[in-house]
Write a structure and sequence with these properties.
Elements lengths: L1 E2 L4 E7 L10 E7 L4 H9 L9 E3 L16 H4 L3 E2 H4 L4 E2 L6 H4 L4 H11 L4 H7 L8 H13 L7 E7 L2 E6 L13 H8 L5 E5 L12 E3 L2 E2 L10 E5 L1 E2 L10 H4 L18 E2 L3 H11 L5 H12 L2 H6 L1 H6 L3 E2 L5 H18 L12 E3 L14 E3 L4 E3 L5 E3 L3 H4 L2 E2 L2 E2 H7 L8 H33 L6
Parallel strand pairs: 7-11
Antiparallel strand pairs: 1-2, 2-3, 3-4, 5-15, 6-12, 7-8, 9-10, 9-12, 13-14, 16-19, 17-18, 18-19, 20-21
Helix pairs in contact: 11-14, 14-17
Length: 462
């Protein structure tokens, strides 16, 4: 296999006189970088015999057909994989029809649901820009899903759509209903009572730094963090189904009578969603069992540590993150404390935000303009303009450029609101976001000073 654009070749060679089969093949790799004409010249004078091949030995779990190199690769692979820490998880909700299912306010959702459920399917297709790919059958299924559930205002819930961008939707939990893939086996745990969840993708397609982690206390859309890849949702707590006091595997997967909108008291006692072996190992090492919140906070701190992100960037892009745990209780505690600050900030529930890091200036209609008259950043004055007369300031360049996953947060949040009049609550939220990112940068600097002690004396977790 050869790709001239990248100059990469992968070849399977079988020794003469042997049949291909397990243990009989050898895998080799070679790559060539440079401009197209230089590649052609090289190819004209080289063949299989005089190409400098490198023999590969692909290892589980990924069995990659490329050389794996990187700082501390063996050390990183000894860390605990995220999917071995959390027991229940899934990708986020796939609506397949954001124009229909995602709205700015709960009132907008209710109006949409009432109108859509009674519309002729072809009229609904035009009114909500569903396009030709959405079949009439699917439109009818979505309408039937709404009709069978009322419609009821109780099913209007907040949903994390993008970083710091909570919107609203109507949630039934039925696959191929109003939502294409509502993921009730996981999302019901976010609706059954108080909860928090970690969001991160399995892999990242782009090169560069890794910054693909976030938290939520509501249900999530499947690209809430990652622009091109699907995000996974890891809840901290799981709730039994109605009438069930214990979580069997079928309960967790929604097989024991899934009833999403019963009062929390009907669900019995919630349990943490963490691997018991990991929790027990930490309890033995530290002399006391860390709370589920402390473990989540610690994980979040690791994922936001710049040293960790840079050191293991290549591995983080390929698969779920792996988390190191320190042998020292004090180191774990310091990281968890910083992680707690990050979690509270990113949920916008920090106990005391204090004075905002920026203010909203100018007189006007608070409406985001289009084109050159609209959203722009002036690095000289540290101003973020939404129209020619109104702006947020000061917004430092490092805050304006800060990225969470595939999104430049400060830009994306406002860009999605182009030609929309910002409400007072939205203005306050954006000021909080600027404040949160400013403080996040400061906490990340602190994490870099603590994290080396994590790897200095690692705890072995089987």
């Amino acid at each position: 296999m050869f790709d001239i654009r990248r100059g990469v070749a992968i070849v399977f060679l079988v020794k003469r006189g042997q049949k291909a089969g397990p243990g009989k093949c050898a895998l080799y790799h070679a790559e060539l970088w440079g401009k197209r004409q230089a590649k052609y010249r090289w190819l004209r004078s080289h063949g299989f015999a005089n190409t400098p091949w490198k023999r590969l030995g692909p290892n589980p779990e990924l069995y990659l057909f490329v050389p794996r190199t990187g700082t501390g690769l063996d050390v990183y692979e000894s860390f605990v994989k995220l999917t071995d820490i959390f027991q229940v998880y899934s990708v986020g909700i796939v609506t397949a029809r954001d124009n229909l299912t995602i709205r700015w306010t709960s009132y907008d959702v209710w109006t949409t649901v009432l109108n859509f459920s009674k519309m002729d399917p072809e009229l609904a297709r035009h009114a909500y820009e569903l396009g030709s790919k959405v079949t009439t059958k699917r439109i009818k299924q979505a309408q039937e899903d709404l009709s069978k559930t009322g419609p009821s205002r109780d099913r209007i819930v907040p949903i994390l759509y993008r970083p710091f961008d909570v919107r609203y939707s109507y949630y039934t939990g039925k696959p191929n209903g109003f939502h294409e893939r509502p993921r009730p086996e996981v999302m019901r745990h976010m609706l059954s009572g108080k909860n928090v969840a970690l969001i991160t993708p399995r892999r990242v397609e782009h090169v560069g730094s890794w910054q693909h982690a976030f938290v939520t206390n509501v249900i999530t859309e499947h690209v809430a963090v990652s622009l091109k890849t699907i995000d996974y949702h890891f809840p901290l707590y799981i709730y039994p189904s109605a009438g069930q006091q214990d979580d069997c595997l079928e309960c967790v997967r929604g097989g024991c009578g899934l009833m999403l909108f019963e009062p929390p008291s009907a669900y019995g006692v919630r349990k943490h969603n963490l691997n018991p072996t990991l929790v027990n190992t930490l309890a033995i090492a530290y002399g006391v069992e860390p709370s589920p919140e402390d473990i989540l906070n610690y994980i979040y701190a690791v994922l936001y540590t710049p040293l960790y992100r840079e050191k293991y960037a290549d591995s983080l892009r390929r698969d779920f993150p792996r988390i190191p745990f320190p042998r020292a209780k004090g180191v774990f505690g310091k990281m968890a404390k910083l992680g707690r600050k990050l979690v509270e900030l990113h949920l916008l529930v920090a106990p005391a935000f204090g004075r905002p890091a920026a203010k909203f200036h100018g007189h006007g209609d608070n409406k985001g303009a289009k084109g050159r008259q609209g959203l722009r950043y002036d690095p000289a004055t540290k101003r973020v303009y939404i129209n020619p007369a109104q702006y947020f300031a000061p917004v430092p360049t490092e805050v304006w450029e800060y990225r969470t996953g595939g999104y430049q947060v400060c830009e994306k949040w406002l860009k999605d609101r182009t030609e929309r009049t910002l409400s007072l609550d939205e203005i306050r939220t954006y000021l909080k976001v600027v404040t949160v990112l400013t403080r996040t940068l400061g906490i990340q600097e602190e994490l870099d000073t603590v994290y080396p002690a994590v790897e200095a004396d690692l705890l072995e977790v089987k």
